[in-house]
Amino acid sequence: MKLILLGPPGAGKGTQAKIIEDEHGCVQLSTGDMLRAAVAAGSEVGKQAAAIMERGDLVPDDVVVGIISDRVDQPDCASGFILDGFPRNVAQAEALDKMLEEKGLALDAVIELAVDDAILVSRIEGRAAETEGGPRADDNVEALKKRLEVYHQQTAPLIDYYGNRGVLKSVDGMAEIDTVSGQISDLLKAG
Ligand code: AMP
After folding, report:
1. Looking at ligand 1, which atom is closest to the CA of residue 150?
2. 16, 53, 57, 120: residue to mutate for ligand 1 pocket, most atoms within 8 A of CB
3. Is the pLDDT of residue 180 over 70?
4. pLDDT grade, residue 128 (50/70/90)?
5. Topology (CATH) of 2-26+79-190
6. Ligand 1 center from residue 53 Cα (angstroms)
7. Collapsing DSSP states into helix, strand and coil, what is residue 83?
8. Which residue ranges make up each domain of the chain?
9. Are strands 109-114 and 2-6 parallel, antiparallel or unpaired?
10. pLDDT in tens, 3-15
């Protein structure tokens, strides 16, 4: 199974990706996690990405496209993968299309976690308050609001991008975690 999970920061993509990973035996590919690992390791990519991530902007497309392309070639991805946090704009989606075609792969579904903006902002504020000074340098209200703004400007157009191709499925991301994962499971079973 090859999936994209689409949704704004705080929508629960990571949580759902882990549940799908356990249920379907495919691998979660989170560009955010990979970039944070690169920052922690002090690699060239990490040095390039750190400040950009801290303020909630997008790191350059070629960096994330390269990371994903290399990762998809790893043997564990042969059983399928869930893209969590990638693509983040139309240029990345086009690069992904080209990459998958070159590798002879195809997406099974794009799942949108639909969430209400006002609820998201209050969730984000709660999360920032809990984790201020915590493990994520971008978990402060200012950066999280910037990430939400970037989502609306650059990532939300992907809903139409994939909707127009008939591969988009939408679930209510505001429901309880188990309800959301149940909805996703049903969608995947229905094909
Ligand atoms: P996330 O954990 O998915 O919320 O990502 C955290 C941060 O990593 C984002 O705010 C961006 O700075 C960066 N990032 C993650 N994925 C991407 C991507 N596909 N394109 C550009 N930047 C990304």
Report:
1. 10
2. 53
3. yes
4. low
5. Rossmann fold (3.40.50)
6. 7
7. strand
8. 2-26+79-190
9. parallel
10. 999 999 889 999 9
